[in-house]
Every structure is written in C-alpha cells, then in structure tokens.
Amino acid sequence: xxxxxxxxxxxxxxxxxxxxxxxxxxxxxxxxxxxxxxxxxxxxxxxxxxxxxxxxxxxxxxxxxxxxxxxxxxxxxxxxxxxxxxxxxxxxxxxxxxxxxxxxxxxxxxxxxxxxxxxxx
Length: 121
What we know:
The protein is of the alpha/beta class. It has helices at 17-30, 61-71, 80-85, 104-111; strands at residues 3-8, 34-40, 76-79, 100-102, 116-120. It has 4 helices and 5 strands. The longest helix has 14 residues, at 17-30. The chain starts with a strand and ends with a strand. The model has no long low-confidence stretch (mean pLDDT 92).
C-alpha cells in the first residue's frame, strides 16, 4: 500500500485543482492506498473560508473536499499564514468546520511519513 500526501495550491472557485485532487483521492482510496493528509496552500486556502456563499447551481468543492476527508478520516490542513494574508481567517473570522489550521513545518513533518507527494496547482 502506498501512502500519499496531497498539496493543493489553486483557487477553489476557478480552475481544476480541486476537482482533479478529489478525483485522484477517490481513485487512491478505491485502489486500497492511503491519503495521509491534504494541505491547502497559496490560493487554495480560500476553501477554508466560512464566508463562501455559492449559488445553489454551482458545485461547492470546499464542502465536497471536507466531506470526503471526514468520511475517510484524512486530516484537512490549510496554511494559517497564507489564510491570514488573504483574510480567510482571523481572530474574528473562523474557518469552516473540518479545516485545520497548520504551518508549513507541520506539513513538512507529515511528508517524512508518506511515500509520495502529489501537487495540484
């Protein structure tokens, strides 16, 4: 069994990074491999925002990712520094449930325990 760490950098509301990452993680789990953690960095941290309010006809990839990670007990981490720079979270604005604030050092420590890192930009 191979273990993977997933790094997502692209924005949640445009591009294919979240869709591709979700598709990849589903295939990994179905094949009997493990996803150790998901780390959101740069523009991807916007997925952790509690302020996202999408029309009902648009897919909520932030919620889909959170539900997938929760169902498979995968830690869903976001870079706290990148989030603070972008106003995603602060003392007044908390992240969406299921998203865990972390630093790059914690992500780096997790990388020492996995076989492969897959990046989606």
